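REQUEST ID: PR-0412
SUBMITTED BY: lab tech R.K.
PRIORITY: routine
TASK: structure prediction, single protein chain
INPUT:
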Amino acid sequence: MNNFVRRAFEKIDKLSIDEIKTLVGYQASENELLGKVCESVDMGIVVISESGRVLYCNMESRRLLPLSRTLAEGASIKWALGDPDVAQFFAEALDNGSTLADPVKEFNFQRGEWTRTLEITYSYFDSEVDQVFKHDIGTRHIFFIRDVSDHKRQEARLHRSESLASLTTVAAGVAHEIKNPLASIGIHLQLLRKAFHRKQSLTKEDAKRYLDIIDEEIERLNAIVVDFLFAVRPMDVHLRLESINRILNELCVFVEPELAEHKITIKMNLGSFLPKVLIDENLIKQASLNIIKNAMNAMEHTGGYLTVTTKLEQDHVLLSFTDTGIGMSEQTLSKIFEPYFTTKSTGSGLGLTMVFKVVKEHNGEVNVSSHLGEGTTFTISLPVPKSERMVIEDKGEA
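STATUS: complete
OUTPUT:
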């Protein structure tokens, strides 16, 4: 309520009839403007009273919501909604209000060959006018309905494009990797053939050295195929609200003895009162372990320090792994997440590719900063769920 209206209400007993008419006209004009704005936006808006009656609904809400009967002011929202899942979300919001676990939810509806996706966001407010007039109409429950079908389809197309580009890169890596074992198999088959032609017959001992190498190369080819399937197959991700500090603490305790053997001291700087994040614990542990092993290799001959840090930054929890190792050049830094790229004499070159893939599956980001001779920092950014953001805001207000 603006200051002009507030002051007028406070002095309403002293206003003349004409002044009251002017005030009512002003409010009517404001309401008309608000109504036109609400009707012109490309989202549905529904306001519901504590008793479950519709106080306001615009035309877009009638078009978007699945209805079993007409949605109009005064109607019961319980009987107007035609989809049981949407009706349940509305009912939970009305019952739980500010304690609703997830105030944003998506619903899919099949319309012929197309899937329509609605995003419904819940909010609420208690009017200041109630306090001025010293009466309690109760909490107003507000629902915003958006059709996000096009956005979801664009996301799917982008994801397919990224997957295709990634598959092309991985396929090129596989083609490069299989050349050497295939060449080795071909060479030793030729040698075996020449030996047989020269001696007309071969004992088991004569053939064993050729066959052993061929067998090793076949195993190597099999490992390449297994790694390739890991790189291109979708991950089976099971997200749950978990404490990232607990997970990192357990992991650091696990790797500390191995790090100590390499004269590496681990330091933990974990932030206090961090919100929980939606993660797959096993995958996050594996990704973090790959980064730690990468740091261990960077300090293999010199020893040093590995610092693990967590903190809250706006709507994201940040995990940082900082080592005092040899660092990387800009050229190396630009390629570290590419499949089969490695600076080590051994290894598949898929460790950091796995890290990148895991973080993306969690809708997060991974960034790396490094300087030759100074060390490297890997930073993973994970989004805080909206339900956890509300908890943070409530604590802040308290």
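NOTES: The CA atoms of residues 67 and 369 lie 53 Å apart.
REVIEWED BY: pending
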